[in-house]
Structure formats: C-alpha cells, structure tokens
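I am still getting used to backbone structure tokens and would like to learn alongside you. Please make up or recall a protein chain and show it to me in full. Would you write everything just below, so we can both look at the same thing?
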Amino acid sequence: MSLSFVTHLYYDTRNEHLGDYSMYEHTYLQKLNDALINIPSKEKTLILTYYQELIHKEHLTDQSEETIIQALGDPVIIAAAILKKNRAKTSQSPYEQQGWQEWSDQGMDDKFDTKKSKRTRPYSKLQRVLQILGLLFINLTLMFWLFLCIGILIVCGWIVSITFVISPIILIAAYFTPYLTYPLFSLSIGCVLFGLGIVGCYLCKTLTKYFWRVTKYYFYANLHVLRGDY
C-alpha cells in the first residue's frame, strides 16, 4: 500500500465525518489502529505515521488539536476504506498487481491441434480399412456360422414343439381305428407330448425374442463400423 493512496484517502474522508470528535491525537490514532484489522504491521505503521505527522503539521498552523482531528474524519471510516482497498489488492494475483496480463495459449493449441489432425488423417483412413477387413473376417469365419447354427436350432425347436402340440389330435383320430392295440396308453402319451409342446413353444418364443434382439444389435454395430462412427 503506497503513501499516495493514504494521502488521497485523507482528502476523500476529511469531509465524511459524522458529528464532532472531542478526542486528542493519542485517542484518535489508537482508534485508527484498532480499526485497521488484518493489515500487515508494516503498512499499519506507515498509515499511523502519516496521520501522526499530518496532525503535527496542521498543529503548526496554530489550529487546535480537536479542530485538526475533526477535519481528518472518522477513523473508522478511514480504516474501512483502507481495508476495502487492501482486499481488492489481495484478490489479484502477484503478477496482476505488477501490471502483468494473463496470456492465453488457446490460439497456439488450435494451431497445434490442426497440424496434429492433418498428420493423423492418413493413419485414420488406414485404421478404418483395417477395421472393415477385420470385421469381414470375423463375420465370415465365426459370427455368421454362429448365428446360423443358433437360428437352425431355434427353428428345429419350433418344429418339434409344434409337432408335440398337434400330436394329441393324431392320437385321438387313431383312437377310433380298429388296429390300435392300447388306445388309452396312446392317449396318455399324446397328453404328455402336448404338455411338452406347450413348454417348448414358450421356450422357443423367449429364445426367438432374445435372438432377434442380439442379431439386430449386432447388425447395427456392424453398420456403425462400416460408416466409420467408431
């Protein structure tokens, strides 16, 4: 905190006092010292010395001490202005206090990123070609046959389940034929097969639903790879 600020503060606050101050130099300086909280001792000494010398200088003009102190202003107001100035100063960085300005390297980063993207562009095309070739290799050697086998098993499950469901109809028709030796036994077997067919249809329905979801997801994933989204 410079001495010029304290001098400027004196002329700003000399007319802001409220009422009369019937106090002497020691009391005035003591109140000012008590009001200057959180101020470094070196700066506080500088401020108190300035006001003490100012009182002595005005006292040489044959003015009374009370008149001089009344002209100085309220020590609490003076201390509040000094504290406000000190807080504004400490909120700045040391470089800003010395007149430095913050330098931004955003432009340099943009230029560096542009050059970097230009250098990596051929490698990105090569990487995409390798992704497509790898995807085709995996699909033709593994995934296609895996999905085909699972699909065939599900279709076979549907065929067997539907056959079991309609088997009681055939057995009931055969029950009335004269060539059937054990008609009741055949009817019992038909009921069992019908129950197994119902369970099989439920399982095949569930497997078909999840198989369709997985197939759809895998298809869209391959499509994104071919488009270069990944």
In short: The chain has two domains: 3-97, 117-227. The chain is about 80% helix and 0% strand.
